Structures are given as structure tokens and as C-alpha cells.
Amino acid sequence: MMFVLWESILSDLMTFNTVLYNLRSAKNVGMIARSHIAFGGHYLIIIGEQNKWDFKGGTSTYTRKLIELEQVLFFETFEQFYIWNKAHINAQNIAIEISELAKQTNSFNDYNNSNLILGNERTGIPESILKQCDHILTIPQIEAIGSLNVAISASIVLYEASKNLQTQSKIEGFKFV
Fold first, then answer.
1. Could you give all domains of the chain from N- to C-terminal order, each with its CATH number?
2. For residues 86 and 69, what is the distance between their CA atoms, to the nearest angstrom?
3. Whole-angstrom Cα distance, residue 136 to residue 118?
4. 10-residue block means of pLDDT along the chain (177 residues)?
5. Strands 114-118, 92-96: pairing kind
6. What is the DSSP string of the chain?
7. C-alpha to C-alpha distances, 128 to 21, 78, 89, 104, 132, nearest whole angstrom
8. What H or E segment, with its residue span, contains residue 45?
9. Distance CA 156, CA 164 (A)
10. How far apart are CA 173 and CA 177, in angstroms?
């Protein structure tokens, strides 16, 4: 009931969700949650083993905040998430992955109503999931280093997605409030 009302409001306002596929590190999830909030993301969606996330420490404060606001969703499989997405928000799926088929993030600007999907720190996003995505984006590199840390990659992409937002938090001293 309240969820349905919120979804109708959300469909007009939503810009992006952050989707984390089988991440291994709670520290990375905490850092991504912090960037997700800072750049105006809505849902933080975690796919994989839900019981392994025992958020503790400084960076997980933001994850706990999202959980309290009921803005963290957990799915065991990508298929469950995919079905939920189609039924509830119908957002486009955008994979962030190193791929020859990918568009570069700095030349892409259709982030509205999207799920930004980031993969496992070691194995990335499986080909079977990439085939179900509307777009595949990669972060261009000047010097080849292999890959960026998933939390750094997320922050870069979340910043790119937030560029079209017309809001900014107030600054007091040296902090956004």
C-alpha cells in the first residue's frame, strides 16, 4: 500500500539505483553506500548471500542508515532482482564492466531511471547478466592498470549519474550538511 504509493512518486523522481552483484567485501559495500547517498541514489540493491553482511565500523554507518530507511534491498539471485525490477520500477539495467562492447561513461548521459550494476571484485559481472543489460559502460583509463577497485569505480559512475540532478546539499564550513 505505502510501497505502491512511494513507487508511483519514485517513478517521476528517480534517477538511479546502485546494484551490487556478489561483492565480497563489506568495506567496499560501506564505501559504495556512502557514495550512493552523497550522489543521490535511491535503492542500494545487494545481490548474493544476504547472511554474510554484518555491517560494522565507520563506513558501514551509511549502509545501516539506508537499511533503516528501507532503501536497501536484498536478492539471492540476479533473476529474482530482474523480475522485481520489471514488476516494480522497470528501470534500465546498466552494467559497469570492462568490455570491448562497452560505451565509455564520459560519453553516456542516459542514467535516468536506471540500475547501475557493479560486479564482484575478482570475477566481475557474468556474461549471462551482461546479455540482460540495456547498456554496458566502462570507465576510460589513460594508463592501463587492469582495473579499478569496485568502490572507486562505483564512486566515479555514481558521480557521472548525478550530474543531471539539480540539487546540492548545503555547505557549512568544510562539510556538506
1. 14-131+141-176 (3.40.1280.10)
2. 22
3. 11
4. 47 76 89 90 88 56 64 93 97 96 93 96 96 97 91 96 79 81
5. parallel
6. -HHHHHHHHHHHH--EEEEEES---HHHHHHHHHHHHHTT---EEEES-GGG----SSTHHHHHHHHHTT-EEEESSHHHHHHHHHHHT-PEEEEE---TTPEEGGG----TTEEEEE-BTTTBS-HHHHTT-SEEEE---SS--S---HHHHHHHHHHHHHTT------EETTEE-
7. 13, 10, 22, 21, 7
8. strand 44-47
9. 14
10. 10
Distance set, CA 139 to CA 28, 74, 87, 105 (Å): 18, 26, 30, 5
The pTM for the full model equals: 0.85
State the Cα angle at 42 between 13 and 20, rounded to 5°. Answer: 140
Taking the C-alpha atoms of residue 23 and residue 122, their distance in angstroms, rounded to an integer, is 9
Task: Write down the pLDDT at residue 58.
Answer: 56
pLDDT at 168: 75
Does an H or E element contain 79, and which? helix 78-88
CB 115 within 8 A of CB 92: yes
Residue 153: enclosing H or E segment and its boundaries?
A: helix 150-162
3-state secondary structure of 48: coil
DSSP 150: H
